[in-house]
Amino acid sequence: MTGTVGILGAGQLARMLAQAGKPMGLDFIFLDPAEDACAAEYGEHICAAWDDEAALKKLGRQSDVVTFDFENVPEASASLIESLCPVYPPPRALYKSQDRLREKTMMQDLGIPVAPFHAVSSRPELKAAVEQIGLPCVLKTRRFGYDGKGQAVLRFEEDLERVWQDLGDSDLICEGFVPFDAECSIIAARGLDGRTVYWPLTRNLHRDGVLAASVAPFFDSGLQAKAEALVQRLLDHLDYTGVLALELFLKDGELLANEFAPRVHNSGHWSIDGARSSQFDNHLRAICGLPLGDAGHTSHSLMFNLLGEMPSMAKRRMSTPQSEPDVHWHDYQKTPRAGRKIGHVTVTAETEGGLRATAAQLAGKLGVTAELNLEAVMQDVSTP
Ligand code: AMP
Prior knowledge:
The chain is α+β, with helices and mostly antiparallel strands. 33% of the residues lie in helices and 26% in strands. Strands 9, 10, 11, 12, 13, 14, 15, 16 and 17 form a 9-stranded antiparallel β-sheet that branches. A 4-stranded parallel β-sheet has the order 3-2-1-4, sandwiched between helices. It has a 4-stranded antiparallel β-sheet with strand order 5-8-6-7, with helices on both faces.
């Protein structure tokens, strides 16, 4: 197929979209204010602010369809482009996901279970919310929070003042703290014709609010069906096209929604190496109006995020991938910086036991050379 996909954002998600789309015959154009945006090597890079009208119009005119790789793109910018060419997922999904209060309210209205929550915009409202919800609870900024930033857990009455000092100058939401047994996510792709495919439920492990590792499939057929039903409500309600990720808490066999991302998602990166069609392939297929590929898994997968800088063994192995065919390194070619997501590695195996063995071996070799302590992650991964 031919055509040009415009992407608002040129980070690693846009980069992996382009890597999936180039072999399909697609061209790419990106708008991103960062001069060193890592997707830029795959197409024209319009280096401009998110609300630069001329730049947005240029992107819209040069594209057959426009999508985005992060959810804080101003909804107005996506809507402006919509007057020039189709934008998928729909800007309304951005609008809902950009504000945790709107997002949670919508999910609650759709009958998707969520932790109890209250809007908070003053100190007395915080006190009232904490009284209603009870301790512990979590206070979060309604907008621009990501990777655990802009949130704090309140465990004792004395925490209120400190947390208010830290976050009180933003609009906030106070949520019940979920003492979850596990975190997981369901990723789905919905085509222009409404047909939907789902990847297997993925178990996620966070460290300091940042995704550290994902394991798929997270087997439990009952849970898979429940998760699919929840994400389907969101997709249908938003008349959605593209990939959407719904992050969930698992508690006593029940699923509670935390948040959704109207885009390809870090917890779906394993699908590049461990599924028949990756989330990137199917996102492009969906927004280009093509039939979706099978989202079934081909192996057991474990994805580790690589933070800070690429381990030197990754660089060596990437030049000889045949030496370890079950270990798939992905380098986003970003400038190293402490805590920055600069790549990921996915281990694949035919069996769960094989996965654990290969992953433990890799963790042992990497040790603490990556900022993430892989051995510790493996231990957590093996306790559901
Ligand atoms: P979020 O930015 O909402 O995705 O939160 C980042 C991480 O904080 C989540 O993946 C959880 O590990 C934790 N978290 C967020 N909200 C809650 C909650 N209500 N209860 C327990 N843990 C939470």
